[in-house]
Design goal:
Shape of chain A: globular
Strand order of the largest sheet of chain B: 1-2-8-11-10-9
CATH architecture of the largest domain in chain B: 2-Layer Sandwich
Largest sheet of chain A: 4 strands, antiparallel
Number of domains of chain A: 1
Number of domains of chain B: 2
Number of helices of chain B: 4
Largest sheet of chain B: 6 strands, antiparallel
Mean pLDDT of chain B: 95
Radius of gyration of chain B: 17 Å
Distance between the termini of chain B: 48 Å
Order of helices and strands of chain B: EEEHEEEHEEHEEEH
Distance between the termini of chain A: 30 Å
Low-confidence stretches of chain A: none
Strand content of chain B: 35-45%
CATH architecture of chain A: 2-Layer Sandwich
CATH topology of the largest domain in chain B: Gyrase A, domain 2
Number of strands of chain A: 6
Structural class of chain A: alpha+beta
CATH class of the largest domain in chain B: Alpha Beta
Helix content of chain B: 10-25%
Largest interface: A-B, 17 and 15 residues
Helix content of chain A: 10-25%
CATH superfamily of the largest domain in chain B: Probable tRNA modification gtpase trme, domain 1
Oligomer: heterodimer
CATH topology of chain A: Folate-binding fold
Mean pLDDT of chain A: 93
Number of helices of chain A: 2
Chain lengths: 95, 186
């Protein structure tokens, strides 16, 4: 499998490690009243779509950037690769 | 008073040199390194400060630039700065005073070891060592990849001179991998 890194171009998947669902970017507010419930859902509950899935990959043996890869779980086709920081900032996160 | 003897990453008192079919792999201990990571919102200030330091525009993605003090791209808004150890032992302090609070600077000198490959047919050696797309390797380009599961920077200085930076603690394994590839490919 080859991942088309947004800055470096196509790189072999052996350079990357997989973390999981990109919803991990949306870490709940630990000071909210429902923080315990929110962290339970954040830590344990995942969607399991048959189709497009956004996931976090780490370019460990490369430039060590975190990426959000949109991959079809049925065909393994990768339709989009973004820097995770750009995705996080677009969602209003400060870092 | 201690009487300490300086040794290289491979444990010798002199840098190791090996030649196979006209290609030389040499250990290069005379390097001072520091990493620079721009802090959020300060990217342009860091670029300006680094330009003044290396006296040339800051290298773009996958590139290197500079003469005595050289910078190479390490990641988004991150660079490694390399300079001769003899004249720039305090490179991290020098870089920190250049960038101030706009970036985080970390001394890297003892974390890495450098091997220079020089001679003809270097791509034949690197083809065996890594999965890099060597058609993209042009003079001045830099890339990080794994060589025998060791994360390394590869700097293409000229078509007949490549530098490989690997973790110092894996110097022996990396040297073994390079020599094995040289003996197989050349």
């Amino acid at each position: 499998m080859i991942i088309d890194h947004p800055m470096l171009g196509p790189r072999d998947a052996s350079e990357f490690t997989y973390l999981g669902d990109a919803s991990l970017i949306d870490r709940p507010d630990w000071q909210a009243d429902d923080a315990a419930e929110a962290f339970y859902e954040y830590g344990y509950l995942r969607d399991n779509p048959a189709g497009e899935h956004q996931e976090l990959w780490y370019h460990e043996a490369g430039d060590r950037s975190w990426l959000v890869v949109t991959r079809n779980t049925l065909t393994h086709e990768i339709s989009k690769v973004e820097l995770a920081r750009d995705v996080a900032r677009a969602r209003g996160r400060s870092k | 008073m201690h009487d300490l003897v300086a040794i290289t990453a491979l444990g010798g008192t002199e840098p190791r040199m090996d030649t196979v079919a006209g290609v030389t792999c040499s250990e290069v201990p005379d390097v001072a390194l520091a990493s620079v990571a721009a802090r959020m919102g300060q990217e342009n200030n860091v670029i300006k400060a680094l330009e003044a330091l290396i006296e040339t525009p800051v290298p773009d993605v996958g590139q290197s630039a500079g003469a005595v003090i050289c910078a190479f791209w390490a990641g988004p808004d991150q660079w490694m700065i390399e300079a001769p150890q003899d004249s720039h032992e305090g490179i991290a302090t020098q870089v920190k005073s250049a960038v101030g609070n706009a970036a985080s600077v970390t001394e890297q000198t003892d974390g890495w070891t450098r091997f220079d490959l020089s001679g003809p047919n270097l791509t034949a050696v690197l083809e065996l060592l890594s999965s890099l797309d060597l058609r993209k390797a042009t003079t001045g380009s830099v890339t990080r990849s794994s060589i025998h599961h060791i994360g390394c920077f590869v700097l293409f200085r000229t078509p007949e001179l490549f530098s490989i930076y690997g973790p110092r603690s894996s110097a022996g394994s990396l040297h073994h991998a390079i020599l094995t590839a040289m003996r197989s490919a050349l």
